[in-house]
Amino acid sequence: MVKPVIVGAHYGFRDWLAQRVTAVVMALYTVIFAISALMLPDASYENWRGLFSAGFMKFATFLFFMSLFYHAWIGVRDIFMDYIKPTGVRLVLHSVVVLLLVGYAGWVGQILWRL
Amino acid sequence: MTEVILKKQRPKHLALNQIRLPLPGIVSILHRVSGAGLFLMLPVLLSLFGNSVGSPESYAAYKAVIGNIFVKLLLLGLLWAYLHHFCAGIRFLLLDMHVGIEKEAARSSSRIVLIVSLILTVTIGAKLW
User: Fold this and answer.
1) What CA–CA distance (Å, rounded) separates A72 from A22?
2) Average pLDDT score, chain B
3) Interface predicted TM-score (ipTM) of this complex, two decimals
4) Residue B5 forms part of a structural domain
5) Which of A47, B5, B32, B51 would be B58's cystine partner, CB 3.0–4.6 Å?
6) B7 in a domain, yes or no?
7) What pLDDT is attached to residue B88?
């Protein structure tokens, strides 16, 4: 009998699952956001801002964006793993994407907590 | 030995003008393309969102930017990308749970994804235009 040898960094299943969990979070938020936006009396600045400044929606919006950035990381990384073969180029691209997404996360935090 | 024979007898069909990607394949590649497009446009979308909720002044600036016809068209394209990614994503989650994995069901659900995301894009796009 051949003993199975497990190789790899073991992040495959975790990322596969994270991509789906973040997708569900974003899908639920999308529905909640759509309903809340439709219930606004009009598209004035006060109403639009008020939509995101309320406690629950501020938290939910933040969660949506964090899910989005994690989801985007896995998706973009998969695209690079499929099409970019040279290790050096891939490393640079992966680093750029991670840094961008971390920056975006800070940006969103700043936008939401100023409300 | 069988492998060699099989390899030799395998029919070649490289008439590229006749090979058509089946509908589930089209949905799949569009899922990737729409995701990549949304990722690339994230700074634009975040900046628009930040301005729209920032202050009355930044809201006015945001309104002026999205009044531009080219910005409107770009946002309409991104709206489709989001909605397609959303609909195709729900389909993929169902496939993960082994719902609709038979060939016919998978084909009709991919047709539904393409049509529903287009209808939603036109409906929401018309309302926001």
Assistant:
1) 10
2) 92
3) 0.90
4) no
5) B51
6) no
7) 98
